[in-house]
Each structure stands twice: as C-alpha cells, then as structure tokens.
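Attaching the record inline, Q. Sequence:
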Amino acid sequence: MCESEDRAGGPGVVGGVGGIVGFIRSPISPSGSRGAALRLVALHGLPTSPRLWERLVLPPDWMLSCPWVSGLGPEGTASDWSLEACAEQLSPQIEGADVVLGHDLGGVLAAMVAKPGQTLVLSGTALSVYWWAIRATAWPLAHRWFYQRYGGHRFLSHGALPEHSESLLAAFGDHGSGWSDRMRRIAQAMKPPSGLARRLRSCQVHLIWGQQDPWYPAVVAHAVQRGTGGALHWLPCGHFAPWEDPGGFSRVLVHLR
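Structure, as predicted:
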C-alpha cells in the first residue's frame, strides 16, 4: 500500500472532493529531505475512488497525486454533470505532471486533459463509440438492472478475478445514499470528444490492461491502441488492474522511465 502524505508533509490521507486531492504521496530522498521528483497524477473511475491507486509501489523519489473526480465523491453529483466540466476542473492539477494515469472514466478524463509531450497511461477505458453502450445502461428500463438493482456492486465483483472481489467491495462498495441515481446521471453524460484518441499521438501513450477484463475486453484495448498509437502491456488480472496487480502495474510504470 502506498504511503499517503498530507499538505503539510505528515502522514495521512488528504480529504476533499471535486478535483481536490484525495491523497498525495510525496517524495523522500535517502537523507529524509523532500526534493525534485517525477510527478504522477492518477485519475480514478466509476465506481471507485482515489484509493484505487493506493497499492502501487513506486520509487521513493516519485510523487503520486490522486484527485477525486468531481461528481464521484461524497459531495454528490450535479444535475448537469459533464465530462467537459470535470476536465476543466482537473486540468490545473495535470499541468506540469510527467505522467498522467487514468482508469475507466478517469481514462477518458486523462486523455482530455493530457498535454503534448506528457506520458499518458490508460487502463480499462475506451475513447470513442464504445461509450454508447454505457449510455444505453441508463435507458429507462436498463437502468433498473444496472443501477437500481446492483448499485455498482456487480460491476465491482464481476469485473475482477474472484480473489479480489471481496477487497474491491469493501473498498468501493459503499458510496452513500442516492448512488444508483448518481451513476445513472454520469452514464448518461459519457460522451467523449470526437477524435480523442487521435489527439493523443502527441503524447507517449501506454496501455496497462487486464487480460481478463470483462467490461473493457481485448477488442477495446486494441482499438485504443490503434487510435492512439500507444504501447499495450498486459497483466494477469481483471478490470481493476492497479488494485488487482499493483506490483505488475508498478513495474510497467517504472520501466517507462
């Protein structure tokens, strides 16, 4: 599990929502002082939280920032929630980052805010027409099955290898009252910008994907690879690669630099 740091530099988890940092792990040099470091910003998806990235094991001189994605935290979800508004809110935090990571919905946002020359790492996401299927889950009858009945629990438990289901449900299974309606609202608004994948050819794109991801299977990974021109790295896990195989995910990140 990664060590988190608060704004003053002490141990602990930083609270906050709507683009505010969920936790920061600050770099510490062998002498104990904080210095220049590789800076990573990681965006979680739905229905997880900044904790998705807490198991990564990174070099001590790397700084990992994991913001809450607006609308996915305890502050609630605005009735006019949109990808564009989220991206605008997150953009200042991405400025100056060496590596931008995104999983699921966070992958779309990472792609929207990444700047030319940055290294972009995507996992378990899609950047184009695949999202029409997600929007379809919010249709009048479908949403009762996908959201009202399961509230994201089925997505968590069936999206991972069996041995990881329990820990995922414990970490991300409770988002408070009204979560089903909030998920439906977000699904309705999942309309990534046209040509998003092609825009990323000015970035160094890497895809770290679970070989057994049932929600974003290999055909989606290859479509993202073709669109972005990125390199594809496979891990022996399901949809939640940073949580299920943090060691493998971390090793790929380290070898990118």
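Confidence is low (pLDDT under 50) at residues 1-20, 28-35. The first strand starts at residue 21 and ends at 25.

More tomorrow.
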